[in-house]
Amino acid sequence: MANPNSFRNLANNLVSQGQLQALWRNPSAIAAIASLLAHGLLFAALPLLPRQEVRAKEADIKDPVSITELTPAEQSRLPDMVTLPPVELPPISSAPKNGSLFTLPSLSQPNTRTSITPSDSLLAPPPPLPIFIPPILPPTQFPSFSTIQIPPAQPAPVRPVQPQASDSPAAMPSPSLSPAAPVSPSAAADSPPASPSAEDLNPDQVAAQPEPQPSPARTEADIQQDLIARQQELRELYTFRPEGTSVEAANSSFLSWYGEAMGKDYGEGEAEPTQEEVTADYLKVGCPLKKTQRAVVGVVVDAESQIVGDPRLLKSSGYGLFNQEALQVAKAHEFKNESGGNQVYLLGVNFKYSEEVCPPGFSPIAPAG
């Protein structure tokens, strides 16, 4: 029989007091011990639970289905599986070795899929692009006014000082004692007449001749004023002004000018003015504008086809340089008046822009330098 003291000593040797204290201080050990105790209690309590409540209760069948048996008459109408002819299948040996049953189409074959036309598509095709898209022109660049050069003032020519006559005998030339060579008449005729010297002129004639006065030198302020005036003139020529460009303004100008030129108002009984159209050369100074312009000038012509008075600008082109040129074209135009009296003409002057007159990169004003 074992000694109880030996078991006590063995327990003391296995678990000492220091090890127990170390286990109680370790949270992992406490969690493991608690888990073991909980699972042990669960396994111990399972046999004590009631088995009737654990089992699932089956639902009661309310409408049981009865088994139906066929009568001999009904069974006679059923097909007899024995009398059916057997299905004849081809033997395996007769099947082609390289049959097309499992053959895949070759990758080298062209794609035979039909292409979908735009009409079959659900989406309508986009509208075609326009054949010509007008380019966006850059804004009109006026010529630089700073490139205009004003020529410097020319200095006045210096007049050579004429030697004055002296009364001293030393200044008088002594006559030559050698005989003079004979002069032929032809040589005398060919030689130009000698210009009179200061000694040959009468003192009164010398005093009467006015001496040329040197022109006063232009100052920097005068040159600056001329440059400003030129810039203002060019600005007026190149600036678009809408006054007088409309048809209403042209009709008003015609009525006013007709009363002044003909001495009476224009009425229904008056003869209608003769209208003519001319095409003038495009001004090279107007190349930076790159626009076709038209102006209408009113002219009165007498019975001899001569212009009476000055032509009047009735419809403006919008630019001063084309308006001035239109007036000059009207003055130089040849009119043929066959009415026997004064006739009013409305002359339309057209300026058509073309790259032949204004090639790309053309500058009407030469750069400075």
List the SSEs and their pairings.
Blueprint lengths: L3 H11 L2 H9 L1 H19 L5 H4 L17 H5 L108 H6 L12 H6 L11 H19 L8 H16 L11 E7 L12 E9 L5 E9 L4 H13 L10 E9 L18
Parallel strand pairs: 1-4
Antiparallel strand pairs: 2-3, 2-4
Protein name: TonB C-terminal domain-containing protein
Organism: Pegethrix bostrychoides GSE-TBD4-15B
What does this structure look like?
Helix content is 29%, strand content 9%. Mean pLDDT is 71; it is low at 118-123, 126-151 and 164-189. The chain has a domain at 233-351. Strands 1-4-2-3 form a four-stranded mixed beta sheet, sandwiched between helices. A hairpin with a 5-residue loop joins strand 2 (293-301) and strand 3. The chain has helices at 4-14, 17-25, 27-45, 51-54, 72-76, 185-190, 203-208, 220-238, 247-262, 320-332, and strands at 274-280, 293-301, 307-315, 343-351. With 369 residues, it is an alpha+beta fold. It contains ten helices and four strands; from the N terminus they run αααααααααβββαβ. Residues 100-117 have a biased composition (Polar residues). Residues 100-123, 143-220 are annotated as: Disordered. This is TonB C-terminal domain-containing protein.
